[in-house]
Amino acid sequence: MAVLDHVAVGTGTLAPGWELFGAVLGGTWAYGGHSPGFWWGQLQYAAGPKVELLTPTGGPDAAFLERFLADRGPGFHHLNFLVPAIEVTLGKLRTLGVEPVAVSLQNPRWKEAFVRPRDGHGTVIQVAEQADPPLTTRPPPGLGEPGPPSSLTVIEQQVADIDGAARLFEEALDGKIVDRTDTAAASVAELCWSNGATLRLLQPRSGTPPAEGIVHLQFSRGVGTFGAADRNTAALLSRRLGISVRLGN
Question: Closest Cα to residue 157, out of 108, 217, 225, 206?
């Protein structure tokens, strides 16, 4: 079964990400390293998906990330799903009328493909088949010590077609719908995966179609609470990263 493995944030400067997702939110180093054109690093939490930071390192292979940052600044970049058999997943996507792009199946250790934002209801979706766990790597020197542990409890994505979005994440990417609510204000669907990841799809009911895409991440602490200083720091760093983070208790 596929799992929602991580949410990626593109940024030109890593320091705010390390401080927010590590020092404030308690993320611990998972792994990372250099790929052609960019550097990536992932932090893991007590529960839920990981957070990945991406930053360009120059050269022609950096163009996709440099364009992203030039067009919109730092912000949420993509959702990653690890799948057991990528060609099966690609078939499911095509059955739904979604044509994957940048399909790369040559490397037996890492096969990947992408879904465009217009087909991913506002966000890039990366699907990948990983033969072996990534090699353990040393944490970057700028990461510092993690804060108290927390969990990434919800990724919220605003969509214009909640039925189509729910179908994509359920039928092609193995999410389990655990809640479906329709009110005068909005339609909501929540999907979960076996690793504890939760994706909340939200379609506001208004005359103007909503801007689609990931709107915020929600974190909670199993022990203790987020204090005023945590909330103030998180708000400041989130703005620098072009994202929204909500802190629950």
Answer: 217
